[in-house]
Amino acid sequence: MPDFSFRDRPDKQRVQLTLGKASSSADAEQVLAFLDFQWTFRTMQATYEQLLDQYQLSESKFIILMLLENETDHTLLPSELATKLGSARATVSKLLVGLQKRGWVEKQHPQDDKRTVAIHLTAAGSSVLTQFYRPILRRLQQFLRRLRFKSSSSLKAYWIKSSKAPNN
User: Fold this and answer.
1) How far apart are CA 35 and CA 15, in angstroms?
2) Nearest to residue 51, comparing CAs of 145, 133, 142?
3) Which of 12, 7, 46 has its CA nearest to residue 30?
4) I need a labelling partner for 120 at 20 to 30 A (CA). Which of 14, 114, 140, 143 fits?
5) Nearest 10 degrees: CA dihedral of 18, 20, 21, 24?
6) pLDDT tens digits, 21-56
7) Displacement of CA 37 from its chain's centroid (Å)
8) How big is the chain by its Cα radius of gyration, in Å?
9) Cβ-based neighbours of 166, under 8 Å, separated by 6 or more
10) Contact in structure between 11 and 35 (CB atoms under 8 Å)
């Protein structure tokens, strides 16, 4: 079976050869820079997903816990979570079932309206979030130290600029 892990990345000579075969005027250095960027992204994404798995989280569950943590009373309505997450309410409901089974969130009924159900972050949910932050922030710091940006604002400006690149 072929190895599709992309460990055998092309050098400048191979890129130039490929560009020549494709009759392309693209710059080999730019192609290599893009491939390096893509490699870095894949590595970071794999690390992030590995950490999520280690803490029995998905990205959506992590975001829900963060949203609840950021609220003054650590409570939101399911519809508010769906809006903030940009997901359907049914999707959020399924995610909440899993979080509730783990004891990371609990349903609460406000005193003024027993028909309404609010979602509250538990101490256990806050704890898992705090535990998850440590390794993810440590890895982020390790990554950022390798970059040669003068400040985080210049890095942020770069990401914003690159995210607005044309898609065609």
Assistant:
1) 10
2) 133
3) 12
4) 140
5) 90
6) 777 788 888 888 888 888 888 888 888 899 999 999
7) 16
8) 22
9) none
10) no
Token match 């710059």: residue? 27
Would you tell me how many other CB atoms lie within 10 Å of the CB of residue 3? 7
Length of the chain: 168
Whole-prediction pTM value? 0.75
68 burial type by CB count under 10 A (0-12 exposed, 13-18 middle, 19+ buried): buried
